[in-house]
């Protein structure tokens, strides 16, 4: 999907390669660039690693970049690395990196289910994040509502949301009075639903048709 999007945008080849080979990860603040390289070298040939630091204090922000030589290696790293790294493809360097880092941090920390600690705080090295960062901003659940201006095809929508592990069902519902699309998606865990919403809300499918993905109340305790 990322490769198709990139090529459809008509971007220059160098930018395309950069978009597909550089990943952005959340790391313990104690990590050095060598630690980061050690964790991610198993997925392919690394061109460079860098850690984002506070410009004033020089302290690590707990975020970093890993650039691979091939898009397939970056894709493998995203799929196979430990979920605590929250790996995603990085924005190209010509876009505002600070805004990207802020959005990433907000999506991955501030929308976590409520509680005093983050899920990976069972590992002491990750506990340097402020505890109050994990307070919930919206009610989460294992069930999602997907709305579109265009009608959905059951098999295609299922295939799209099945990219996130744990899909239990995809129920496409048709409105006889309008041509819009509506579907209910359910995952086996709230974590999968959170990830699917983060990745697919605003996603253009088909191109030019933006999906709206929101949580649906499913009766479960969101503190999970």
Automatic annotation (TrEMBL):
Classification via InterPro entries: Nucleotide-bd_a/b_plait_sf, RBD_domain_sf, RBM45_RRM2, RBM45_RRM3, RRM_dom, SLIRP/GR-RBP-like
Keyword RNA-binding part of the UniProt annotation: yes
Gene field: Rbm45
A Pfam family that the UniProt record links to this protein: RRM_1
Keyword field: RNA-binding
Entry-linked CDD domains: RRM2_RBM45 (cd12367), RRM3_RBM45 (cd12368)
Boundaries of every RRM domain copy: 21-95
Species classification: Eukaryota, Metazoa, Chordata, Craniata, Vertebrata
One MF annotation (Gene Ontology) recorded for this entry: RNA binding
PROSITE patterns registered for this protein in UniProt: RRM
RNA-binding keyword on record: yes
Protein name: RBM45 protein
